[in-house]
Design goal:
Oligomer: single chain
Structural class: alpha/beta
Order of helices and strands: EHEHEHEHEHEHEHEHHHHHHHHHHHH
Strand order of the largest sheet: 3-2-1-4-5-6-7-8
Number of strands: 8
Length: 484
């Protein structure tokens, strides 16, 4: 009798190949397919040679080589290619078979595909996979959602290949219904944008204001990685700053200052706008990449527009410590905003998200993994209904300890003409969130003046709306009250 594989995987690019090798190393047999079948031959006879991997040359052969219920994982480009493969697979699948999308898919697509496949008697899992090439091979963070009935059939495979925290707990658990898994991965990527931008701003302050060399900054990030900022992104920044080109000069200084993006940060920002969540730091991080891409315009502008020349005369050691604290405080704000967004989405879409469990899934394998995440899990374990991480005792204490340093860094950068959009937007959010009275009373008066949009009064119960005839020329008719 022909031996059947535990799972099939379509798409032998970097992530797909490494996930297959990871699964096989954990004792699972894997059948593979790629639209370009020469990639199948190359993989099976190369990195997969001698391993429990079955190469197939058609979808029919792939599906026929799988144990029931069949599990087929797609590692293809998000969007139309996923829909195309789903349609090609459906005729070959039986009731209860499972299709898994492991790409960076926008969560509304996963919502749609889950409903569509369930209507045909099939099951669907949309799962976020984070960790890059190395994570895929050695243990990524995995965030599955979709048809919950499918989870028991893939749980062993996913949790076996996932990264593990110190006590052996896998960085993978069921996230929630429909597109919840891809939503959480999207927020993860948004936070990743924020973390990277914050680190880059600290780097620019050290480079432009403190005039530190790459080697000096390497030592700073090396030291930071031993404490509260211990994380994958701080670790790789340390390594990048210490890396030399063939001529012995820092490689980082030779890289063009224009950044790319694949869209998940933008999705996070747009979703926050849709749900009315102030995701300011991640939004600024996305816009910073957009501004960096305008390289030619910036070069021209630099010759026309003038500003202060950076000059530092203070205590360099103190400024580096201030930068560390400002980075930590801003990082706390970024995660706080991300969790507020997840809470709003759970309410909007009827998901049941485990906030502490999500922090645990991010503890290992993924790009934003850090010691810091353990404190987030503790905060939600202590208070599952926590509205904002800034209100947790631990994070409140850290923010208050960093307050003066944070303000000194933002002030010094502003005075010296150094852009720090993420650091400053994080501080503005903190100040806004702790502010009992914001100027929105004037804003609402303006809206009522030009559009009769009404307002609430401080001397009346919430929910009662009023309109004033500000000019004496208007009537008493008011606009319908609603929020977008």
């Amino acid at each position: 009798m022909e031996k059947k594989a535990d799972i099939g995987l379509i798409g032998l690019a970097v992530m797909g190949e490494n996930l297959v090798l990871n699964m096989e190393s954990k004792g699972f047999s894997v059948a593979v397919f790629n639209r370009s079948t020469n990639k199948v031959d190359s993989f099976v006879n190369g990195r997969g040679k001698g391993k429990n991997i079955i190469g197939t040359r058609s979808l029919e052969e792939l599906v026929g080589s799988l144990k029931s219920p069949r599990k087929v994982m797609l590692m293809v480009k998000a969007g139309k290619p996923v829909d195309d493969f789903i349609e090609l697979l459906i005729p070959h699948l039986d009731k209860g078979d499972i299709i898994i999308d492991g790409g960076n898919t926008h969560f509304p697509d996963t919502n749609r595909r889950t409903a569509y496949l369930e209507s045909k008697g099939l099951l669907y899992i949309g799962t976020g996979v984070s960790g890059g090439e190395e994570g895929a091979l050695l243990g990524p963070s995995i965030m599955p959602g979709g048809s919950k009935t499918a989870w028991p059939f893939v749980k062993d495979i996913f949790q076996s290949i996932a990264a593990k925290v110190d006590d052996g707990t896998p960085c993978c658990d069921w996230v929630g219904e429909n597109g919840a898994g891809h939503f959480v991965k999207m927020v993860h990527n948004g936070i990743e944008y924020g973390d990277m931008q914050l680190i880059c701003e600290a780097y620019q302050v050290m480079n432009d204001l403190l005039e530190m060399s790459a080697d000096e900054m390497h030592e700073v990030f090396k030291e930071w990685n031993k404490g509260e900022l211990d994380s994958y992104l701080i670790e790789i920044t340390r390594d990048i700053l210490g890396f030399k080109d063939d001529d012995g000069k820092p490689m980082v200084d030779k890289i063009l200052d224009t950044a790319g993006q694949k869209g998940t940060g933008k999705w996070t920002g747009v979703t926050a706008l849709d749900l009315g969540v102030p995701l300011t730091l991640i939004g600024e991080s996305v816009f910073s990449r957009c501004l960096s891409a305008q390289k030619d315009e910036r070069v021209v502008a630099s010759k026309i527009l003038t500003g202060p020349k950076p000059s530092f005369t203070g205590d360099k050691k103190q400024m580096i410590e201030d930068l560390r604290k400002a980075l930590l405080a801003s990082k706390i704000v970024s995660y706080a905003q991300g969790y507020v967004l997840m809470r709003a989405a759970a309410e909007e879409f009827g998901w049941h998200l485990n906030n502490g469990g999500i922090a645990l899934m991010w503890r290992g394998g993924c790009i934003i993994r850090s010691v810091f995440l353990g404190k987030i899990k503790e905060a939600f374990d202590k208070n599952p209904e926590l509205n904002n991480l800034l209100l947790d005792d631990y994070f409140k204490a850290k923010i208050m300890d960093a307050d003066a340093s944070w303000r000194r860094v933002v002030a010094a950068a502003t005075v010296n003409g150094i852009p720090v959009p993420a650091l400053s937007s994080a501080l503005s959010y903190f100040d806004g969130y702790r502010c009992k009275r914001l100027p929105a009373n004037l804003l609402q008066a303006q809206r009522d003046y030009f559009g009769a949009h009404t307002y609430e009064r401080i001397d009346k119960p919430r929910g009662e709306f009023f309109h004033t005839n500000w000019t004496g020329r208007g009537g008493t008719t008011a606009s319908t009250t609603y929020n977008v």
